[in-house]
Input
Amino acid sequence: MIGNALLLALRSIRRNVLRSFLTTLGIVIGVASVIIMVNLGSGATLQVSQQIANLGSNLLFLHAGQRFGPGARAQAPPFKLADVNAIEREVSGVAVAAPQSSQAMVVIFGNENWSTSVNGSDNRYFEVGGWQLARGRLFGESELRAGSSVCAIGETVRRQLFGAQDPIGSTIRLKKIACEVIGLLQKKGQSAGGSDQDDAVVIPLRTFWRRIAGNQNVDRIRISAREGVATATVQRDIERLMRERRRIGAGDDDDFSVMDMQELAQTLTGTTRILTTLLGAVAAVSLLVGGIGIMNIMLVSVTERTREIGIRLAIGALARDVLTQFLVEAVVLSSLGGLVGILLALAASWFIAGLLAIPFVVEPGMVLVALLFSMVIGIAFGYFPARKAARLNPIDALRHE
Output
């Protein structure tokens, strides 16, 4: 019986191809919108997770002042190298702590120049950040102790200053400092905050102190927690240690800030998931609109085929046969719309993900749910017209003009 109803449904759809297409258009748009929103949201969430992972493993940032960026406490005293060593020595959950002092500068090579961030640190900076070398080498111990004029550069700096040329062994100028490029860092891309991680130059910390800063301050400390140790625990231990070293009283506020990147990652990914859910819910409203369109066209179809229904009932068809026929036709319409919507959504998601430079992610569960939901829409909105057709009086139906 279902097989015959399916054949009749396909025959009816084929007789009115344009009308059937317009009827399913609401379902197509609804299914496509939901899948596109979810896929793009999942891609954005994955990108945030990858960007934070690129910063380093189990990473924490220690800054002077109570806030990051604008509004930070200017009067907060900076850190010293002894603070970095104390964190490594006294906080058991810390694997590596790296000092970092930074200043924006114009870097010059030949006729090319580029404004970038110059960071003073040591080889712990590369270890904490998970940096790998594309070419060259890291700083030698003698270079770190002597404050030699050597540097490692990021991919963006290489591209802007050297183009296709190999930078290793070349000399660049930082203000009046001539600095030999000994290392090229592998490309990392953007951070979770949108900054370019490859737009940087790293020099030995003592070189930065003597030739650029004129002091021995440490702007911030990058900290990598040991594997298996909760970063929240490490954060509490660091805060306790720094309060002792900076002689902060029991009732006084901290004059430093510790940012846990795992906590930031959870916040950002949670936000993108909520936004994805909201956008998907808004897009799902068009599915209901599509369902109303199916109900409307099925009611028209019942009116047009009243005599056909009367003949079927007169020659022995049961009311449930007529109900099944029209219900199957509604489900076929909505299912076809769902399939077309899925194909359209996958193509559009791939294209838009490329434009937005985010990973192309397909959520198979959502694709299946969208298809099933489109079928449910067909049943829900097709039942009333089918029930109306099944309840027709055969005599009245045969008299219908």
Residues 2-51+268-399 form one domain. Strands lie at 59-64, 94-109, 112-121, 133-136, 150-153, 171-174, 177-185, 200-204, 220-225, 256-260. The chain has two domains: 2-51+268-399, 77-254. The first helix runs from residue 2 to 15.
